[in-house]
UniProtKB/TrEMBL annotation, chain A:
Organism whose genome encodes this protein: Cucumis sativus (Cucumber)
Protein name: Gamma-secretase subunit PEN-2
Annotated TM spans: 50-70, 82-105
Locations listed in the record: Membrane
A cellular component annotation (GO) from this entry: Golgi-associated vesicle
Membrane topology label: Multi-pass membrane protein
Organism phylogeny: Eukaryota, Viridiplantae, Streptophyta, Embryophyta, Tracheophyta
Automatic annotation (TrEMBL), chain B:
Record-linked PANTHER family: PRESENILIN (PTHR10202), PRESENILIN HOMOLOG (PTHR10202:SF13)
General function of this protein: Probable subunit of the gamma-secretase complex, an endoprotease complex that catalyzes the intramembrane cleavage of integral membrane proteins such as Notch receptors.
Protein's name according to its UniProt entry: Presenilin
Keyword annotations of the record: Endoplasmic reticulum, Golgi apparatus, Hydrolase, Membrane, Notch signaling pathway, Protease, Transmembrane, Transmembrane helix
Transmembrane segments: 21-39, 70-97, 109-126, 132-155, 160-179, 185-206, 378-398, 404-428
GO molecular function: aspartic endopeptidase activity, intramembrane cleaving; endopeptidase activity
Length: 133, 437
């Protein structure tokens, strides 16, 4: 195993010496397997924009993917998009969860006969979605 | 040094690699088993009849005799394998014609269909089962989000590795659950047929998957297909740039051996088990050979002993290996995606790749076992994981794309029937006589 590393040692040492003095901070949670900072900017911007197409989950994934950006302030170019995504996701989740909770807890007392038409399993039965063929 | 070079690339980290590939497979199987046991609790005999391409020739009914079922299941699986073969050849053709964009969009569309429709269907089953009072707006928005982000994560853009892997496992789970709705005999015939097909498609010189992999390697591109890629193993003390080097080590070594020391290569090759494969490689040279000029040159230089597949693997690196090294970290980490060896079965690079089809059919086997009893589930799970381990060992030995289905499926089926026929009787007797449990 040691002999295996030997032929690579000289090829490894050259880039290592360049990078080791600089503490590399990666913008994505995947570290070196993820994106570079340049790519990150375009991806973060794209995810942020797509999120407005009723895709709050994309905002959540954006926050998750660029978590180091959200934590530290060392990426000023990416950070606005990520913070925006976080805020958007928070607002959207607040709205939709309050609506869904009202719907499920309030139930028929609150909504009357409309509830039966809106609840998903009745709707699926009516449209005939639950059969496979 | 010569004999150390080949196998250690995977063997030294084999434990970690196995864990990283077995974990998602286990999660997928576990979720399928849970779905099966929640959604069809009493379906050892009764099943929903699904009209699909897998039951195009014959649809099983419980009144048929076993022979009828056997013949029908055989026909079904033959039709299914024929369709798959045609589709794969079509994909090879499209890939050969460089319609990568079209393939990518088609794959994205199919992923969207799987996630949106199958996922929505299964979500509806769960909602009905538990009577979850969710309204249709929330449901549709959530489903749309789920499917759209899934397509983005799997095909259209780069995404967090965890998210991509999670979606791949989910797609595998959904398709596998759908396959467990097939009639029983058809499922078994299909599993056997697909294992054989996998064996042929990856190992035969004209097999479609092999053509696809070789084409991808010679072009230095990714196959636009659903392939689960394990996160490569990282040492904790290594800095990020080591990782890039590490992933490419298999390539780099071969590159060096053939470029700088061509005389040493025949020794290192003849030490290993290449002798046993040499006849296969002879057939291969006479048949399809993507890069005739370079490989014949190498062969003329090194004699007949050098397996041709090594040279094929080398070729894309000869022009790439030079320019990756001096570049920055960012570019190296971006471009090493392309440098990795692809395999539908299993790729022999730093990160192990497993086709999603393997996930699906492992899970189908386990899910089908779950319809009988949990004892068969345990037996099948252990057998499949053992088969996966054997396949990984073979991968370390042969260092090329291998079919991942045959060993695992064979072991799984054998253990299923052994458990069902022998172990169950034994365990039931033991527990009836209060020897166990």
């Amino acid at each position: 195993m040691e002999t295996l590393q030997n032929p690579n040692a000289n090829t490894n040492s050259n880039p290592n010496t360049i990078s080791s003095p600089i503490r590399v901070l990666w913008p994505t949670i995947d570290g070196s397997l993820g994106l570079s900072e340049e790519e990150s900017v375009s991806y973060a911007r794209r995810f942020y924009k797509f999120g407005f197409a009723l895709l709050p989950f994309l905002w959540a994934v954006n926050c998750f993917y660029f978590w180091p950006v959200l934590r530290s302030r060392s990426f000023p170019r990416i950070r606005p998009y990520i913070v925006g995504s976080a805020i958007g996701f928070g607002v959207f989740m607040a709205i939709i969860s309050s609506w869904a909770l009202t719907f499920s807890i309030g139930g028929e007392r609150l909504f009357g006969p409309v509830w039966d038409k809106l609840v998903m399993y009745n709707l699926a039965d009516k449209v005939g979605l639950t059969g496979w063929s | 040094m010569a004999e150390n070079q080949r196998p250690t690339s995977i063997l030294e980290s084999l434990g970690e690699e196995i864990v990283r590939i077995v974990t998602p497979v286990s999660i997928c199987m576990f979720m399928v088993v849970i779905l099966v046991s929640i959604l069809n609790p009493n379906s050892s005999s009764s099943y929903a009849s699904v009209g699909s391409i897998a039951t195009i020739a014959y649809n099983e009914s419980s009144s048929d005799t076993s022979w009828d079922k056997f013949i029908g299941a055989l026909l079904n699986s033959l039709v299914f394998v024929a369709v798959i073969t045609l589709a794969t050849f079509l994909m090879v053709l499209l890939f050969y014609l460089r319609c990568v964009k079209f393939l990518k969009y088609y794959m994205g569309f199919s992923a969207f269909v799987v996630l949106g429709f199958l996922g929505g269907e299964i979500a509806l089953f769960l909602i009905e089962e538990f009577s979850i009072p969710i309204d249709c707006f929330t449901f549709l928005v959530a489903l749309f989000n789920f499917a759209a982000v899934g397509v983005l994560a799997v095909f259209m853009s780069k995404m967090a590795i965890l998210v991509t892997q999670g979606y791949l496992v989910l797609i595998g789970m959904l398709v596998a659950y759908w396959f467990t709705l097939l009639p029983e005999w058809t499922t078994w015939a299909l599993l056997v047929a697909l294992a054989l097909y996998d064996l042929a498609a990856v190992l035969l010189p004209v097999g479609p998957l092999r053509l696809l992999v070789e084409l991808a390697i010679s072009r230095d591109e990714d196959i636009p297909a659903l392939v689960y890629e394990a996160r490569p193993v990282v040492n904790h003390d290594s800095n990020p740039r080591d990782l890039v080097q590490r992933r490419m080590r298999v390539w780099r070594e071969r590159n060096e051996t053939s470029d700088n020391r061509p005389i040493a290569v025949p020794d290192s090759v003849s030490d290993g088990n290449v002798v046993s494969e040499s006849n296969v490689d002879e057939i291969e040279t006479s048949n399809s050979n993507p890069i005739p000029i370079i490989s014949t040159a190498v062969r003329a230089e090194e004699g007949e002993v050098h397996p041709i597949r090594n040279t094929e693997l080398l070729v894309p690196l000869i022009d790439n290996g030079g320019n990756v090294q001096p570049h920055g970290v960012a570019e190296a980490s971006g471009s090493n995606e392309n440098l990795m060896l692809e395999g539908i079965g299993l790729g022999s690079s730093g990160a192990i790749k497993l086709g999603l089809g393997d996930f699906i059919f492992y899970s189908v086997l386990v899910g089908r076992a779950a319809m009988y009893d949990y004892m068969t589930v345990y037996a099948c799970y252990l057998a499949i994981v053992a088969g996966l381990g054997i396949t990984l060992m073979l991968l370390a030995i042969y260092q090329k794309a291998l079919p991942a289905l045959p060993v695992s499926i064979a072991l799984g089926i054998v253990f299923y029937f052994l458990t069902r026929l022998f172990l169950e009787v034994f365990v039931v007797q033991c527990s009836l006589n209060l020897l166990m449990f």
